[in-house]
Amino acid sequence: MDRAELVTALAAEAERANERRLLTLAGDRERGFDAASDAVAALDDADATVVSPHERGDTDHAADLLGTTQDAVVLDCHEGFSANRLGRVVGAVDGGGLLVLLTPPLDDWPERPGDEGLAVPPFTVDDVTGHFRRRLAETLRTHPGVAVVDVDTGRIECDGLTDPQPPQTCTPPSTPADATFPDAAYNACLTTDQVDAVQALETLDGEGAVVVEADRGRGKSAAAGLAAGSLAAAGRDILVTAPAYRNAAEVFDRAAALLSTLDALDGRDDHVLTATGGGRVRYLDPDAATALPDDPDAVIVDEAAALPVRRLTAFLNAPAVAFVTTVHGYEGTGRGFDVRFRERLAESDHAVTSVRLDDPIRYAAGDPVEVWAFRALLLDARPAVDQLVADADPADATYRRLDAAELAGDEHLLREAFGLLVLAHYRTEPDDLHRLLDAPNLTCRALCVDGHVVSVALLAREGGLDASLRESMYEGQRVRGNMLPDVLTSQLRDIDAGAPVGYRVLRIATHHAVRSSGFGSRLLTSCHDEFDADVDWFGVGFGATPRLVRFWADNGYRTVHCSTTRNATSGEYSALMLRPTSPDGQELHDRHARRFRARMRDGLSDALDDLSPDVARAILRATDADFDPELTPHEWRVVAAAAYGPGLYDAAPGAFRSLALAGLLDPVDDHTASEERLLVRKPLQAHDWERVADDLDYVSTRQCMRSLGEAVKPLIERYGTDAASEERQRYD
Question: Where in the chain are the domains?
């Protein structure tokens, strides 16, 4: 069999089974392109796209293929290879289609210079390893449905033919007898799974929550669109949100098509569909959508797993809400959604309906290219099953170095470790697997019990930058992989921040079966013991919540910065915390802790005036910096008169601000949590009395004012001078 005959056989088999096939053309790049052109030409007018960073490609933006279907896609893997790009391209090939990969010779590919994007300064491309490409090449050579051709010699290494059975014919789905949505919505469904999902979404025409889960290509977004169109046709206002509009485009396309079928589409403009009966389907980004503007009747959250818990929880305030999520995806994982959000959902007032779509729509079940992609990109990686670790104790765990070469050679270990890292973050991509195996700045450590990974930490080495690079960073140049030095240098104007070397904790995750039992702290302690002598600091940056700040503070990390803008996706303000391990690290920490303390005195009334009082309390409590309010004698008299006598807050608001900051940096035992929240909301964030009283549930502004006076008294006793004492004695 020659190459042309192989392509014909692969295409015929794919067409017969309604599956996809993968053709790997390994060898010289130009020969690969010529062979790919011949392959596409043999597919009889196939709709084909070439993805390449060079002039031979139709596009270099694999993201443009999301939501589209192609008969064939050719992906150039010779330069600028990206695991994310591979994942996106795979999903664009339709049943009966062909995915063509152009690669270097598979034996040589792992040894070639690595991806420059993984060469984080001060490392160079020579430090990037080839473990991911070696593992990928092995899957290409051994997986069913994948053909490999050496274009330099013409030799067919494996033909990829599987001799599949023809797909079984299925009875077309029908409208359920008790359906309330129009028949046209169910007539548009392609599988029984889709019918079940659309019927479950009928509950949005009332109150409740619906969870729709599926792998890619199962029609979950289409089902959501049919439901949105049905509801809009009935006069309902449906708010749709997703990480980006492109994620929700299928929802809008299906809703618009259904409204047209029902002769109810009045207009489509700027991410809004209007129906003749007054209903509509409108898109807003997650940041704007959480406020539920205009009180929608129902909310549909598409790609929900790509949004963090805080965002998702806000949508539970809607009368009805649907969370549509990908189970195994490269823009978010349904497993993380399950672990982190299902508990919040169960605690809500909503009755919850769950439905899962398993039947593929664009290709047959068991498609070998989908199975290969799941294995190659670890889209289905998961931690050990609960029963294997449920009784684990931190004292019995073994601290283990997870070397990238060892991970690449031990599929079981890799799947458990990466499965935990997936759960540590609401958005995990195939590129994260590539970085784990090949990036020279990353280090992985774990706690294992009986051979199973129970807790895992991913550390990134940062800093150690030469003077010229630090100068460039100071002048605005972005430096990959050095997040903490970058922020401290470019934003906080510390030109020397990139000189000390540190480890930033990128992710730390503990198996949910033993969470909150001490594994995370034990793992951090072991990492500190191993690396403290080699670096100047440990650090972390994360979306600040009181619980997370307390965790890091309990492990010796101290706040040095709080971002002044919310993360566009998570909706959180980010906290940066440092744990110094050397004199240079201590000096770096101390100067930024002092500057942070000074910034927060006024910053909380400016960019951070909407920061949660509990987050503010937590990050200030976790700041290691001395602070003396240093009020003038006159200010002390005003403060004491307001607390003990007829004085007014407005006579010296700055004095109250300094005193409140001191009391939150070093809390007094007499303060309650409510009093600390009041110190944040009024003196530091400078909200008006009516808003403060309303936010903190005081019965009146007068009671709120009296409570502030009571909250200030312990601070006067701690910091007050003779002037404060004399003023106080007037009213005693």
Answer: 3-158, 191-357, 386-621, 633-731
